[in-house]
Amino acid sequence: MFEETALKYQKFAPLFLRIGLALVFVFFAIQKLTKPGQGTAEVQLLLNLELADAAAINYYLGLMEFCIAISFILGFKVRIFALISSVMVVMFFLSFLAKYGISINPDLYRDVGLIGASIALFLLGAGPMSIDMRTPTTKEKNEQVS
Description:
By secondary structure, this protein is mainly alpha-helical. It has helices spanning 2-9, 13-34, 36-47, 51-74, 78-100, 106-124, 131-134, 136-145.
């Protein structure tokens, strides 16, 4: 009975991934855009940049995270934005590892989960209730695969 129910709703897995990741990226963007001091300080520490350069990078990262969240919520070009989000989080993860090495910081390992979820969304696609599924080319591709 449990497996039947799981199989019945399995097609909604990308939708739940999209919503979950969108919430995370919205909160990241809000933090960077409303309280830029913390993000700017982190960018300065990780990349050894001047204050103005770090503030600009922090601002544009916040905008990009907000765009990723909107894309995930709407289901628009999800694979492209999932790939972009994966690359962004991998770059942050690698810069943190290069600067501080492996540590017990839970924020660092949260990023591993975000990388996995973004890659899963890239592989699965937008799923139901998305703009991508409503475009003719996506429908045709999905019919050919099925």
